[in-house]
């Protein structure tokens, strides 16, 4: 992605250098080079393994876990691929892809990963990484089935200019179409399954000319929507929406970690959204 502050050449160089972080990490891991790996994690980094439901915080603890793996007699190797790199700012990037582990003669296991890397005086470092099993849906419609509860009409509980939302499946069910309307604005969102990245993604277009892209991740019972948006004036906004499903007829949504051109913004209060009763004919 090209940022307003970057020339195309700069953006290409940054994309390449970010990809090199993962390549260098895999090479260092396969060489059991713990010293090199330690320099590639930020001091307060975090690692989340969704399959094991484990969160590890801090470089020291992450490296302690890696040292345990290195002490095992089995020959353990990493391999993988990068699906996408998105420059959030000149010093922050988001990476998604797949990572596999082969252990001696066992069949390799494959996980999907998403990472945030930050650039500082020591170069690019991993700030956070999440790993989750690779889903194997039979179709795009099957991949979106966990979001079927969103289908219908909704309205948020705010008193000023409430937003009405309508969600319905596209023909064939490969996409969900979500339209949001208030007196002041209107937006259209397309939610679909990216078979290459193996994740749910969405594309949003707003009436003021702004537009954005998000990746949807599962975090326990919540959905995390990591977004990058081009505002109407050309600035870049990013943040994470947290959707918490209370029940089939109510959910809350909150925007966290919002930045505009790298500048942190004040967090927003959660908004409650309720299903509107069906209109009888």
Automatic annotation (TrEMBL):
Lineage top rank: taxon: Bacteria
The protein's matches in Pfam families, at most eight in alphabetical order, are given as: DUF4440
InterPro entries given in the database record: DUF4440, NTF2-like_dom_sf, Steroid_delta5-4_isomerase
Give the matching Gene3D superfamilies: 3.10.450.50
- Domain DUF4440, which positions? 18-126
State the protein's name: SnoaL-like domain protein
The organism of origin for this protein: Allorhodopirellula heiligendammensis
